[in-house]
Structure formats: C-alpha cells, structure tokens
Amino acid sequence: MPIKYYKPQSPTQQIGLKKHHKIILGGFTGIVIIYMIVSAILLNGIIVKQTVNHNSLNNKIEALQADSNSKINQLTEVLSETQESLSETKSTLLSINESVKSQISSLKASVDDDFSGIIEQTVPAVVTIRTNVGQGTGFIINEEGYIVTNAHVLSGGNKVYALTYDEKVKEAAFIGYDAELDIALLKINGSYSKLRLADSDDISIGEKVIAIGNPLGLQFSVSQGIVSGTHRQGSNGLDAYIQTDAALNPGNSGGPLINKAGRVIGINNFKIGGGESLGFALESNYIRDAVNTISQEKLQIELF
C-alpha cells in the first residue's frame, strides 16, 4: 500500500488566520495607534492651551492688582490732599469770619459815630488788676489767660488778682516784666476772649480811639478821644508813645488804647500832670516785642 506524505502548515495556517483576516487586524491596530497618537496630541494641546490661559489669567490678575494698588494709593493721596485743603479752608473761613466781624464793628462805629460795637466786642477781654497796695487795668492777649499790664501797677504788691468782666476774681501768676518799657506779663486760669494788637506803624494822627480801664476804681470805664501824636518820647528816652486826648486817670494804667477796628494800638501808661488831655500809651509794636521777649525767656514760647 503506497505511503502519503503531508506538507506541514505554518503557524498562521495552524490558528486558522487567512490573509484577509491579517489585513483587518493590522488595520484595526493601526487605527488604535493613530487614535492614541491623535488623542495624545489633542490632550497635549489642551494642556498647553490651559497652561497658557492660566498664565495669561495670572498676568491679568497681577496687572489688575497692581492697577488697583496704584489707584488706592492715588485715592489715598487725593483724600490726604483734600483733608489738608479742608483744614486750610476752615482756617481761612475762620480768619475771614473774624475779619468780617471786625469790619462790621468798625462800620457800626463809623456809621453811629460811636464805639458801641467795638466796646461790646472788646471789653470782655479787659480785666481789673488788684494788689494789696493798689489797682490798675490789664487786658487778655491769649485765650489761655495771659494778661498784659503795666509793671508799675504791681509795684509793692505781694499778691495779684484779676477781676474779669463776668465779675470773677482770679489769682494771677506773675510771669515776668520789662522794666524799661514798664510791661508785665501775668496769667490766670481759664479760657477767655482776647484782644489783638494792631501795627502801630499804621496809626494816623486824628484817628478816633477809646481807652478802657479802671479810673479811680470805676471798673470797665470807657473814654473816647483821638490820636494827637505818635512816636512821642517817654521818660525812658524812647520815641515809643502815642499821645491821646482820651481821658486817662489813676487806674487806667495797663489798659488798652483801641482803634475803630477793635485792635489794640497801645497800652495806657501815663499822663502829664497839670495838663489837660495829655495821655500817653506805649505803642503796640513795643508791646509785642516786650511780651515775646518775656515769654521766650520764662516760658520758651512766643505769645504773638
């Protein structure tokens, strides 16, 4: 009996894969690989885009923060400048208000040909000065109660009191004095109206004035007159005195000589005995210098 021989099959033939099966399998594998590559590319693109967007958003946030901080700083500066401007405006308005009050009082005095408005405005800042040996007048130059008077009013006394316009008796502290100009500086406790000094270089001969004082014990008496001369020589040899025909009597010493603007142009100092209407007041510029010298030496401050 004849023997038959069989050709051995390949592995693919053994598992039954035919040619068209191999093509399909290879195509599917290729598609999967391409899908994975495309997906990786797309995912990477998304990640890159998100990273770029995130960085851009961070940059925008930082820019907004910087812009906000800059605007806040600008607003703070504007607010600070506005506050300073408001403070300056308030100060200006207060100054204008005082100026208007003074002008109204001056106008009233001019129209009525009297000093009723000025007296009402100034007399609350005038005080009667008393010691155990005599009395005179003084006037308040600072809201904290600093008083100017003549040094000779205090001579020989060991206690000084000030009687204010509201009839309160205050013990006065002695600060210092200028013997040559006969000026003394005192202080009482409390808060008060004050008188302002005029520039005595602007005084005109013939202008009307009033003297407020305590003549012969008659408290807060007022006399009216005119300026008869300026830069008159006193017993100290200084050409520093205003001559006035306003009546001055014992007790007027240390009181203010006031112009129609309600400003102090001098401090009533002495009169020539035997003569009528020959009163003299130390000019306000000398008062200012003397008081500032005393306050700087004794208090380390300037009151004017």
Report on this structure.
The protein is an alpha+beta fold and about 300 residues long. Helix content is about 40%, strand content about 25%. The protein is built from 5 helices and 13 strands. It has helices spanning about 10-15, 20-110, 115-120, 150-155, 285-300; strands at about 125-130, 135-140, 145-150, 160-165, 170, 175-180, 185, 210-215, 220-235, 240-245, 255-260, 265-270, 280-285. The strands form 2 sheets. The protein has a 7-stranded antiparallel beta sheet. Helix 2 (about 20-110) packs across helix 3. The longest helix is centred in the N-terminal third of the chain and has 94 residues, at about 20-110. The protein starts with 10 loop residues before the first helix and ends in a 5-residue tail after the last helix.
